[in-house]
């Protein structure tokens, strides 16, 4: 049974840091790349980052470049999203999803989703 479970969300002050995790089961991180997405209230879900399972290359949307870092631990079947210098506009439910191994088309095609974790940036 395929599962993706996000954890680590919470409340953080502007300028602060938070890390969210995506632990997968039913497949390995060699089989699919993992993409992070987020959905703010009243907005469409958007792609945030992706880490390739074929070569470890990483991709970021412009809004988070230089602030967020995606990484993976194959032994733990877990992908992390380290978020630094956070802004109120980073407030959203963060989801992880299994996507094509090289992240190609990760914004348009996802195979499996997690349930999401709330991240709130507020003072």
Explain this structure.
The structure is a single chain. With 123 residues, the chain is mainly beta. It contains no helices and eleven strands. It has strands at residues 3-7, 10-12, 18-25, 33-39, 46-51, 58-60, 68-73, 78-83, 92-99, 112-113, 117-121. The strands form two sheets. Strands 2, 4, 5, 6, 9, 10 and 11 form a seven-stranded mixed sheet that branches. Strands 1-3-8-7 form a four-stranded antiparallel sheet, with no helix packed on it. A hairpin with a 6-residue loop joins strand 5 (46-51) and strand 6 (58-60). The N and C termini lie far apart (40 Å). The mean pLDDT is 97.
Give a short synopsis of this structure:
With 123 residues, the protein is mainly β.
- Range of strand content: over 45%
Number of helices: 0
Estimate the global geometry from the Cα principal axes. globular
- Estimated helix fraction: under 10%
**Rounded radius of gyration (Å):** 13 Å
Mean pLDDT: 97
What are the secondary-structure elements, in order, as H or E? Answer: EEEEEEEEEEE
- Number of beta-strand segments: 11
- Low-pLDDT runs of 5+ residues are none
Q: What structural class should be given to the helix and strand makeup?
A: mainly beta
Distance between the termini: 40 Å
The major β-sheet equals:
7 strands, mixed
């Amino acid at each position: 049974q395929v599962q993706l479970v996000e954890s680590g969300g919470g409340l953080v002050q502007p300028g602060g840091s938070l890390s969210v995790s995506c632990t997968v089961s039913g497949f390995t991180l060699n089989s699919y790349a993992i993409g992070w997405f987020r959905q703010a209230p009243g907005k469409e879900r958007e792609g945030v980052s992706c880490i390739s399972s074929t070569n470890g290359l990483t991709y970021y949307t412009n809004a988070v470049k230089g602030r967020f870092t995606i990484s993976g631990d194959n032994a733990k079947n877990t992908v992390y999203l380290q978020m630094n210098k956070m802004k109120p506009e980073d407030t959203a439910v963060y989801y992880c999803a299994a996507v094509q191994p090289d992240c190609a088309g990760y914004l348009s095609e996802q195979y499996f989703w997690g349930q999401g974790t709330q991240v709130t940036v507020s003072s």
